[in-house]
Design a protein that fits this description.
By secondary structure, the chain is of the alpha/beta class. The chain has helices spanning 37-48, 67-82, 94-103, and strands at 2-5, 8-9, 12-18, 24-32, 54-65, 86-90, 110-112.
């Protein structure tokens, strides 16, 4: 497994791991909010260049996600689809799972257990 990026995003961090034909796994942690979304979006866009087939975002260490964070997830899903990549979520903390459920976005994203 190769680590492609493990740089801090203010209060949030992202680290990415990938194998040539395996799913790309991105571990997110901290807050995904107005202060971190722009850098997170750019890092995830860069990660798409290393992804093949499946991009999994592990949210198990995310402590907070606001509407801007949801916007990043939705935008990344569209970008991934345009490249033939499936974006999936895993490790949803209860607060994030509830937010996705309340907004109906839980039906829009693939989930990996």
């Amino acid at each position: 497994m190769t680590v492609l990026d493990a740089a801090p995003l203010g209060e949030a961090t992202a680290s990415t791991s990938a194998l040539a034909s395996a799913p790309t796994l991105v571990h997110l942690s901290g807050d995904i909010d107005i202060f971190t979304t722009a850098r997170l979006r750019q890092r995830l866009i860069n990660t798409l260049g290393h992804s093949t087939g499946l991009l999994v975002l592990d949210l198990s260490q995310v402590t907070f996600c606001d509407v801007g964070g949801l916007g990043v997830l939705i935008g990344m899903q569209g970008r991934a689809r345009a490249r033939g990549i499936t974006l999936a979520l895993t490790g949803l903390p209860p607060r994030v799972a509830r937010l996705l459920h309340l907004t109906g976005l839980d039906r829009r994203f693939s989930m990996v257990v």
